[in-house]
Queue: 2 jobs
Job 1
Amino acid sequence: MQRRTFLTSAAAASATLLATRATGASGNAPTASGLIDTNVYLSDWVIRHSWADTPAKLVAKLRRHGVTSAWVGSFEGVLHTDIAGVNARLAGACLRDSGGILRPFGTINPALPDWEDDVRRCHEVHRMPGVRLFPNYHGYTLDDPRFARLLELCGRRKLLVQIALSIEDERSQNPALAAAPVNAAPLADILPKFPRARVMLLNASSRILGTNTALLRRLTPAGVLFEIATLEMVAGIEMLLKSVPEARIAFGSHVPYFYFEAALLKLQESALTPAQMDAVRSRHAQAAITFT
Amino acid sequence: MNRRTFLESSAVSALAPVVARAAGTTDPAATAWGDTDELRQLGIWDVHAHVGTPGPMPAKRMERLVQIADRMGVERLCIFMSPPWHYEPTPEQFRQSNNDVLAILKEWSSRAFGFVYLNPVHTKESLAELERCVADGPMIGIKLWVGTRCNRPELDPIVNRAIELKALILQHTWIKQRGKGNLPQESTPMELAELSARHPGVAMVCGHTGGGDWALGIRAIRTRPELHADLGGGDPVCGEVEMAVRELGASRVLYGSDVNGRSFGSQIGKVLGADLSVADKKLILRENLRRLLLPALQRKGIKA
């Protein structure tokens, strides 16, 4: 399905839901559609000890809070060179320990030799729904030709491309591991050239999801999906959707780096319609990895 | 019924839907609050709030903030620094900011405590403002931001007068790029520890506890028992709250949100998500701040 068709059908589905769902007293009712956490990691971030030192602990936490599917990357992918090994371990851990909820998103580093084979393995060997990129740690920008090639390849293979714009607040990074956040602006011009590509931004923060919505307004028509792990301001989701109603916002926690409850409570803080809540909790995410 | 009574009863009843929602099945974040209703029914006190929500007038902005606070079980907010913000405000600028907070307190004293915003570089004017807003006015604390480094001698007369007035001092601190990225007059927790050493026994709040580099900030204030860690303003990184409690003790850790820039959700989530006892979480979410503010509240005859 081309991105334009995908966006049109997703919008139509939203409108239908709004029209048919009763507006009950509580606009924030959880639904039977589940909770997809689109921003989760296995392994320690190199400067922080993780409480989730086994996948089983991570899964137990997520299940306790009603997560029905967790899209998991590996922090190892940020600094390791043997990306194939990272992705194999990630896939294995998800298969062995997930309790059925962990979906692996393998790392791709297009600055490495033969990176295209990592894409092939993610798709054909590990059956992943998508891949996750760390451009600021891997030394390329989003106007790099290798990134364009990656979009083309992943679009063809029907893999969602997640781009982690940051891992941590750049103001407090260990000086030995400093990386400025990824500049997402080039996507507005690049994505229309790859209509089959689907892109999601992780940890977009106030640079994109804050009061200055200029870049959000440019990226939304390009089909970009966002998540809430670094979305702030009081009632941030509600305010953002009032400002840019067409923005596609999904649930994401950045667990185990962040406290999971931080993201969950944002759903309580914002007054959302049932359709909006459904969309944030799972519908946008599910649509992003559903290719017809 | 006068407006104050109405507002007070509304505040209590406004919390009821939050509690009811938590106990029922219609709350998207019910599991965040734990297995019992203890924390949901606590009535959270927030040490760090800016009234930057949308609205044509300060009181209207506060109305919107309270509406959202009610969804999150936040009962009291320490408010200060009405926008626009100036890094190194003139006396005219910080007086105007305080005027907005005073206007808010006229209508919302049942939900807010005011902290007077000062710039110690203007020592005489800051002391005059302290008289206006705290000694003779309804405010009970002092907010210091980035007007001057807090280890400078200009702060000493302000601290001395704060002691007399029993006003709690909240000093903004942050550590950016290990201090190299701080604004010219932006303080660090290390500098607050220096100020504290000149005023032993005086309780002060380390705003943001260094922000994202809280692991450094907590270490910096560890040896000053009168310094309290404000958790608000940084990302909800796992381990921050646990480290603060481990190194400082739960009684020295305060929940703060730094709304409107931050959300209530991410900042309360830090505490609810931490691997701590319910008793410790209650201290952090309410009791510690109440204990610190009690002398000022009693001085003004405020029951809370």
Job 2
Amino acid sequence: MEYDVIVAGGGHAGIEACLSSSRMGMKTLLITGNLDTICYMSCNPSIGGTGKGQLVKEIDALGGQMGIAIDTTGIHFKMLNTGKGKAVWSPRAQADKKLYSRYMKSVVESQSNLDILQGWVEKIIVENNKIKRIKTDLDIELKTKSLILCPGTFLNGIIHIGGKKFPAGRLGEFPSIKLAEEIKRLGVQTGRLKTGTPPRINKNSIDFSRIQIQKSDEKPTPFSFKTEKIQRPIIDCYITWTNKETHRIIQDNLFRAPLYTGQIKSVGPRYCPSIEVKITRFADKDSHQIFLEPEGPDTDEVYVNGFATSIPVDVQEKAIRTIQGLEKVKIMKYGYAIEYDFIYPWQIKPSLEYKQIEGLFFAGQINGTSGYEEAASQGLIAGINASLKIKEQQPFILSRSQAYIGVLIDDLITKELTEPYRIFTSRVEYRLILRQDNAAFRLMEFGRKFGLIDEKIYIKMEQQKQAIKEISQQIKNKYLPVEEKISYADYLKRPDKKFIDIEKLQPDYSSLPERVKEEIEIEIKYEGYIKRELSMIEKSKTVEDIKLPDNFNYSQIKTLSTEAKEKLQKYQPVSVSQAKKIEGISPSDITALLIYLKVL
Amino acid sequence: MENDTICAVSTPLGISGIGIIRISGPDTYRIIQEIFQPKNKKVSLNKWKSHTVKYGYIIDGNKILDEVLVTIMKHPKSYTREDMAEIGCHGGLAAMKSILSLCLSRGIRLASPGEFTKRAFFNGRIDITQAESVMNIILAQTEKSLEISIKQLSGALSEKIQNLRTKIFNLLVELETMIDFAEEHAIKEIQPDIKESINIIYKNAESILKSGQSGKIFTEGIKAAIVGKPNVGKSSLLNLLTQEEKALVSEIPGTTRDAIESVISIKGIPLKIIDTAGIRNPEGIIEKMGVEKAKSWMEKAEIVLLILDGSQSIDALDIELMKNLKNRQYLVVINKTDLPFKIDTKEIERFTNEEKTIKISARTGYGINTLYEKIYQLIEKGSGTLKDPEFFLNIRQETILKNILSNLIETQKLVNENFSLDIISEQIKFCLLDIDIITGKNLSDEIIDSIFEKFCIGK
């Protein structure tokens, strides 16, 4: 059997990878250890959030699956940051966890060009620095042109709960041990990271009368351009608080907490601290917010957001029962921490291909990220680039000024990774341009080029884009019936005006699609600021874009400092902008490098 | 590579009133065409040979800003390997500044520090060692001409800027936290008083600008007006002071109607002298305009030199001018002492005292050194920071601080109008980016520019 693309791992990265490559006409195999946990949400049963919501929108615009999946299986939708300006609006939704997984499984099952196999990749056969074959746990040998590895937290995963520790990919599943060894054997440099998850509690044991309800948005905004309207049964979430007693119990038992006993050595994410870290680091706080998020309508498991922990089970139980409304709560799954192998992402190109072996791609948590959205973004890009490579086409690389995905990948491959990476809107330089509302208008063109977008959808997008352009122009040339010359556009720019105020002046605009109205309103209101960002983008396109050669021997440049030689040799940056961001590279090294290249 | 057109004053500002404005980039010839009028009007720009010098005027519409020498260097045979021009100005700092502003108003961008050298480097004109030695030369020259330790000065400035940066940065961090951690309860405790923070930042930036401007006396000098009724010898005095045949000297009263500016050095402080139109009893409209102008220059100038003709009696016009000396820094200069002395000094002392009166002869040069000394004493009296400027700002730094101030005013307005946080935050980020240009830091990791940050503007 010979494949174009083999994707190892059926999580959020792996699914986008195998779907995009098979949709691009590549004969693809998805191989994963457990077919019943495809796109399983190991942690929070939710998609989106600040920055992450933008990623999902971009994945959707490029032809990925995540947006439609959450629109189809969500149970609670919220647009975040609605009070802070449209540029930072971020959609977030709770998913029916089981349904999400089942839905994604059915999508891959019905996908043509895609085979699915339960199993574990254990051997990777490389010849002349090219991927040739893989071998599974059952000694099945499969030829392939490329391999995309998306093992998530499974690589050498070790779970910690109190003094207990045991190998696992996530709670209840095997880790990937042989693959971890194989990756090291190939010479890939790996490190360890840690992440954690809170307990799941039984809904029937919660006293809902004592906690605060949190409602979903009444009119949810779809993640996918393809979704006209979200029609889903909505479930409420709840908010409660930890208190002094909770903190005291945890404090008294810190000597048994693996994060403090030295049992866990690797670094976890600062933006997502466990409860034991929170009470230690913010000792002056008497209380921390806890969100109770149901994992679905037909399960009683409730996710205790804000209470990630790896303290011993008896302490978890005692502590959680001090929380208002949770006095008699029954834990169904205990919280735990997991340590896993990741690869230092400086070893991969912006296409996500490993620099040393042709056809080997890495995507998702293995590259040091955290989050389903970050993983899915990389999976999609890896799938596209593996396919483009086989088609002998240029890799698809999004820049920082084009997409959140561009920022994500650029950060990964150029910055020293010191904790699991999460996207934030503040990492994005051109935030007013890269909005969640215009993702389709920004990126669908690319998705269509790769054959990942249905032509009907594309035409619809194109028509809306045209309408936005035309009407924006029109309202600049129409004036209010008053003495001073005030155009509709200037009128709309006033903070208290909305597009509906223009409709009052021009009733035929009321039949426009809502999305068109919204876009016009934003584009007009932000016009001046958008122009300024555009001019900044132009300015930054300077030496930054100068490309550096592949697999270049930097030790031959005598004028480079020793540190620079080592770092450049290691990172093999693809462009000057990347080289500049590498720690330890001084401006004079860059200068020396440029002079040398001119001489070349 | 950035390929817009840049300009900057490329000589250190200081005692020298002569300086060069350098332009580089594709629009160089367009701008020269627009603002330069060769004395020999037959010369067409197309036929202007590279590396040759032309004499003429810088004009803004019909207004002549300065007489200059312009050199053009066509690419690639120039310092930056781009089209370049150098304008040699003679009219002193103010003229240089107005030419620079003219270029900026015509779409040319002010160069970042070291940008010319940066371009030279990126276009393969010089290598890194050369770039560094250029920097050393520039630094050495600056130190010599200003006799002030650059390092000390930049240290004082950078500390102030760093404090300002911290304030802006802290506000930005709070705003960004509110945006990126929308769901966290912790952000409810962050209630930045944005208005108040911006206020504090504004005052801070403004005070840096102000103290920087007081140190600026060494770089930008102070304004002096020479006033007097027609034919008392104002132009002759100016010529003597500048030792150049700059202003028109004429026996016909009223020929110098336009104020011409020259710069002389008084112990290292540039004194910008404005020659005003002859003042006499307003008979014609033109002369009347001259009188009004002279009075308005007396208002604007920091120092007034009132010239009287020692060979004639005081008349009503002299008296009117002397009345205007009240509350001003001034000297009464009695000229033409080489001629029979007819003026009644008692009358003068009705308006001033002996200390502020000086007798000279512009024709023979008598009393000129005493005049210099008296002017210096006047400057010293008027400016407390004269002896020991803590730091000074160059045009670029001043521009940036002014940008920040106007950005803050704009932001304050947006806050008042309840604009959304994404835009407010962006405004604050822009202030920070501006500051990071001053200190050479860069928020968006633009390390490569930092090597050139050490360079003075214009080289």
